[in-house]
Amino acid sequence: MGNSKSHPEQEFSSRFLPGEQAEVNRLFDALSSENLGSSTSHRSFSLQALKARGHVGDALPPEMVTRLFEGMQRVDGSRKAKGPSEHISQKQFTVSMSHLLKGTAEEKSLVILNMISASGGPVKARDVYKFTEDLVGSVVHVLNYRQELRGWSQKPPPGSPSRVPLLAAQLCSEMKLQGKCPALLLGPQWLDCDCDEAVLEDWVFRAHQVATFLSLIIHQGFLLLCSTLELAALVPERQVDPQREFASLLDILSVIYINSHLPQERRLRWRLLFATELHGNSFAQLCGRITHRGPCLVLLEDCDGHVFGGFASCSWEVKPQFQGDDRCFLFSVSPRMAVYTCTGYNDHYMYLNQGRKTIPNGLGMGGQHGYFGLWIDVDFGKGHSKAKPTCTTYGSPQLSAQEDFQFQKLEVWAVGDAPKAEPARNRSILDVDPEARALLKVSGRGCHSEGFREVPDEQ
Prior knowledge:
459 residues, alpha+beta, 16 helices, 33% helix, disordered N terminus
């Protein structure tokens, strides 16, 4: 396909565009430079060459470099496991890069199986989990090494557990083992289940982040075909006031996980709208800073260390009716990573209200009045997450450690580009400053001139 010359790797190199194949060949030439005296058809490289500072070096953890090398060792053009050798041939390298970067779920699962097992046969689920932990840890490592964290922290806040095993467990929960799914709901015994190539193929097909992470460590670890990696959509830019230090509840892994569930057009940048650390413990402040600001993420940490929140697909508005649409979801970061999407049972996606005497005042998502999947009370610092057994709107379990919880840390991030500002002409100070409007409402005073102002001219 566009290459008339005969090469051992031609069947697989045809997956790459000519320029891409040339880049793959140059990397192999650099890796195999220690064997320049060999004929072209017998050139190869060793594990030591791959680990050398001029190549992968410290960009990836040593255990992941070894896994990649062993995976390449055991694959050839017949798509069968091949006996290990001490070197990687050009055909093995090209086939492996083809499978990992442009292959099908079946081809990727073959490489994964060979990265886990020397025999290429069935492996235990615990071996897949350990591989997944290594993969997730390598993503954090290489992004930090290449300085591609885009403002986010490599690690969660002090005192919080590592998010590496949490994301690894979430990815492994997508596996169907012995006809049951999700795997993690089976308890510890799932670790002893067998995983053959068919199980891994199905897993790679559905848990798309596994393939994404494999591509990432190749692109960033090997510095190969980096122009084809849409890193900006994977890791959003963190936008905060540079004059004020702020440590988020989120680390790079939780950001990547949540970001992958947002609409495509909302994944490039996150802008901090509100944080208790910066703006205080005030529901009026919260309302003033998040209303009419576009889609956003609300998240908090309860006093027991559970981190959770929700995605609001539309701008928040203070009103006594439910709002939003079926793109909204709830999520958990710790002690378990999970996203809970709409069930279709009702349309109680978002709710924000204050200053009313007969209906609840606060911010809620999912469920119903007095029984929300996520509720932040107007008495700031208090909330609830009720689900017996699950939230009717999102199918989520109880997200907090206690049904009625207290919190000290809350953040709101606007996602994607900021909405276009409304024309300032003929606008009240209460339109320009939503915080002032919120303070007026919470004091029990209404906007008595509402409805009497002239309609602004069309621009």
